[in-house]
Amino acid sequence: MVEHFTEPLARAGCEVHLTAPLYASGRTDRTRFEQIVSNLLANAMKYGSGKPIELALAQDGETITLSVRDHGIGISADDQARIFQRFERAVSERHYGGLGLGLWVARHVSEAMGGHITVTSAPGAGSVFVVKLPRLVAEAQ
Known about the structure:
The protein is an alpha+beta fold. The chain is built from 5 helices and 5 strands; from the N terminus they run H-E-H-E-E-H-H-H-E-E. Helix 2 runs antiparallel to helix 5.
């Protein structure tokens, strides 16, 4: 996924530091997982323009954890409560563009795969989005 973002990352002036095991396994929907990574990486570029982005993937027992950290504008505690809702944004659309759907989609896709997404942030201190997914998605009965 990071390779697909080479040009946009260069335009945004963002360097990506990737930490991932040589091998990670899990039965998740690859297309949906890529959609989560894409949305979080796009937000990190947009709100942390010109600053490094740290992308990490880890597996622990029955969980896959993806974290995306930017060093951008950050999000106030009041806004963190609503940014995962449809059409919600923490900033003016005039200055940053977009529809306010990326985090909503990431939340719904995470939940559809049995996981969840959280954010830790403060204004001026950047943001860390963490997605936790089960390594084995239960088969439909």
